[in-house]
Amino acid sequence: MPDFLLQMAPALRWALLAVFALLLVASSTIALLGVRYPGKDWRELKARINTWWWIVLVFSLTLIGQLHIALAVFGLISFLAFKEYLTLSNTRQADHVVLFWAYLAIPLQYFWIGISWYGMFVLFIPVYMLLLLPMRMVLIGETKGFLQSASSLHWGLMICVFSLSHLAALLTLPGSPAEGAKLVFFLVALTQANDVAQYLWGKSIGRRKASPTVSPNKTLGGLLGGIFTTTLLAWLIAPYLTPLSPLYAACAGVLIGTMGFIGDIVISAVKRDLGVKDSGTLLPGHGGILDRLDSLTYTAPLFYHFIRYLYF
Amino acid sequence: MFNLRTLFVLLIARPVVRLWLGLTVRNADRLPHQGPAIVIANHNSHLDILTLYSLFDLKDIANVRPAAAADYFLRNRALAWFATQVIGIIPVQRGTAKKGSDPLAGCREVLQQGKVLILFPEGTRGEPEQLSEIKSGLWYLAQEFPNAPIVPVYMHGLGRAMGRGQWLPIPFFVDVAIGRVLPWRPERPLFKAEITEQFQYLRKKVVPTQE
What residues of chain A, 252 to 281, have a C-beta less than 8 Å from chain B? Predict the structure, then answer.
């Protein structure tokens, strides 16, 4: 076995193996269906699953216990998400240089995590970038659209960089990246499973709309079924991947289930406001990268502080 | 094959456009690989040339030449060397031509050699993400080379990434749409109107539905 696999915690190795097995099943099912029913158009579904392979492969890079690789991957994800956000939002031509400073926050934020400077990691974007960006804008002197511009720029940084960087921070929380990787996997797997579970429950028992104006397809049945499934899953796998007690594991499941839903509809509201269906075209079959990360923008910081408060 | 221009595309144009910015291309197969052909594009940024270059295969770069303003790119010796040798521009005199000089001589030569000519028919970068009026040079050139197909390319997002007067490319995702071959028309205003119309049609395809 290659070195990096040996360094992985055995539970994580099994968990990843299960995910790859799931992908294999999905891919072969689609291939079989394509042969069985050649008349139907399977391209969208195929693209979706092929993209899942890429997502899982890239995500696996963050779990092999190499902090620097993980920081680079998460930094790149933040970069792509923030770029997608800025491309969608209405930036002012006058703020050209300000956007550069905002981008600069990305490597710095991951650097603080790399040197384990917790205080700076939690302060940097919420306080220092909050103060720095308007300062730079004032020096340029354009006042028309100032408030709108300053606030939407900072909101983007908070969601795409600050929130998501908690994934990397989770990696460093228990002391060694190999241990932290289990927490990251727990959070990401549950958040994604929650998305799928809410969708499936919604299809089968969903009737009353959970959020009619923002996301008309989301139902109360889907939401509750999803939370139930996620809580059950959390309770089942937490003993292998986390220090959480059974009660706290269930709490984490409820937290991820509810807040994953909120993250999803918050990004939906942003897209609806801007008049787009998908946040981008980066992930064929899924849409943009923010379409995939929407739930995580809420669950990552919340789960991080939940487990940090209780155990670290 | 690995001349300065190809290296420039490999080491600068492609990394900037594909990694720093990020590129989505619609109908990439409509791009001509062999000349003579005229690729026309809207113009908002210095990054436009880099973006158009990165649409082509590396092996085709030697056969692709962008036309660019002589008054701008040849204004001093260092820039002139960089523009003609590294970026490989074909200098074009803008404005009313002086008697006896032919502003399109360089472009004609490129097409005679059977290469792909990149032309910005608006002639200038203009306001970010706005189309300007189409200049007449293209009409004259296309008249002389009926065998050279005119392929329109619309690029969205580059004026935001680095517009006029800006020197720092800020990352934004860029959308490019390539249209079908445009016919030449004997009536010049009609020809120009059709080009503007085609750019507007391509713009609708790439610009997210706002308002």
Answer: 274-276, 280-281
B128 Cβ under 8 Å from any chain A Cβ = yes
Helix, strand, coil % in chain B, rounded to nearest 5:
40, 15, 40
B22–A93 C-beta distance less than 8 A: no
Predicted confidence (pLDDT) per residue in B114-123, tens digit: 999 999 998 8
Q: Is the pLDDT assigned to residue A52 strictly greater than 60? A: yes
Can you read off the two tokens belonging to residue A17?
A: 């193996």
Question: What is the SS3 assignment for B45?
Answer: coil
CA-nearest residue to A102 within chain B is: B170
Is the pLDDT higher at A278 or at B126? A278
pLDDT > 90 in chain B, percent: 65
Judge whether A97 is closer than 8 Å to chain B, CB to CB: yes
Closest partner residue to A96 among B168, B210, B211, by Cβ?
B168
Q: What is the mean pLDDT of chain A?
A: 94
The domain locations on chain B are: 4-206
Fold exhibited by the domain B4-206: Glycerol-3-phosphate (1)-acyltransferase (3.40.1130)
Q: How far is B71 from chain A (nearest CA, A)?
A: 26
Categorize the per-residue pLDDT at A295 as very low, low, confident or very high, splitting at 50, 70 and 90. very high
For residue A4, pLDDT beyond 60 = yes
Average pLDDT over residues B101-113: 88
In this predicted structure, the answer to whether residue B1 has a pLDDT above a threshold of 70 is: no
Q: Lowest mean pLDDT of A147-156, A208-217, A288-297, name the range.
A: A208-217
Say whether residue A101 is in contact with chain B using an 8 A CB cutoff: no
Closest CA–CA distance from residue A281 to any residue of chain B (Å): 8
- Alpha carbon of A83: minimum distance to chain B alpha carbons (Å): 6
Residues B152-164 pLDDT 10s: 999 999 999 998 8
Task: Write the pLDDT tens digit of every residue in A257-268.
Answer: 999 999 999 999
The answer to whether residues A98 and A1 belong to one domain is no
Domain that holds residue A122: 76-172
A303 domain-assigned:
yes
Chain-chain contact of B168 with A97 (C-beta, under 8 angstroms): yes
Any domain includes A70: no
B31–chain A nearest CA distance, Å:
21
- A240 close contact with B: CB closer than 8 A: no
**Option in A86, A91, A276 nearest B209 (CB):** A276
